């Protein structure tokens, strides 16, 4: 659906938030990318955080004057518009699959790619959508593009997603006997290896 017509159809909601609906805040990209990594590989959360805003920052870098001039000299166009080349879903999927199936270094490339993938997927929730492949710049929206990014709805989605991921991670941890970033003092107490006082003073200490 045409974005302008969609905005008109959602007139009441857009009237409340006239400047919103198109871009997710980096803060929420960080939350969603980091929370996803927290479930599976907490030590690489910083890598996922970098990846979660990479589509925007790569776009900024490619729009630097020197790169614009290179593209013009090679007849590749000028300014890269937002939510185009660096936000193509296929690129980030290919990167994740390559890191998973072909080559990676300590899962760094994989979680960078996952961070970027969460970015473009969440951007795709907005009415402006994202391009799915490099063969067409037509944009597609997920869930009908009815999520107004930049509004309280966006923050609610990010916080709920974070809570779910923490719950899932802690559920895994209790089954595996490992809690990310914390030593499992409760298990030591249950085994009778430490007393209640030692558990109490150490339970919140990071590894």
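^ Assign residues to that structure.
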């Amino acid at each position: 659906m045409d974005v302008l017509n969609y905005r008109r159809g959602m007139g009441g909601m857009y009237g409340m938030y006239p400047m919103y609906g198109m871009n997710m805040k980096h803060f929420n990209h960080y939350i969603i990318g980091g929370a996803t990594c927290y479930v599976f590989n907490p030590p690489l959360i910083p890598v996922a955080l970098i990846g979660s805003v990479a589509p925007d920052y790569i776009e900024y870098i490619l729009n630097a004057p020197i790169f614009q001039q290179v593209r013009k000299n090679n007849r590749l166009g000028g300014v890269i518009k937002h939510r185009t080349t660096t936000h193509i879903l296929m690129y980030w999927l290919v990167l994740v699959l390559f890191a998973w199936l072909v080559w990676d270094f300590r899962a760094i490339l994989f979680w960078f790619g996952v961070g970027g993938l969460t970015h473009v997927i969440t951007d795709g929730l907005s009415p402006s959508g994202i391009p799915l492949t490099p063969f067409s710049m037509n944009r597609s929206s997920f869930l009908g593009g009815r999520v107004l990014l930049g509004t309280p709805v966006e923050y609610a989605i990010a916080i709920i997603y974070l809570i779910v991921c923490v719950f899932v991670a802690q559920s895994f941890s209790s089954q595996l006997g490992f809690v990310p970033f914390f030593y499992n003092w409760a298990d030591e107490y249950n085994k009778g290896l430490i007393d209640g006082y030692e558990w109490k003073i150490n339970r919140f200490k990071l590894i």
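Confidence is low (pLDDT under 50) at residues 1-21.
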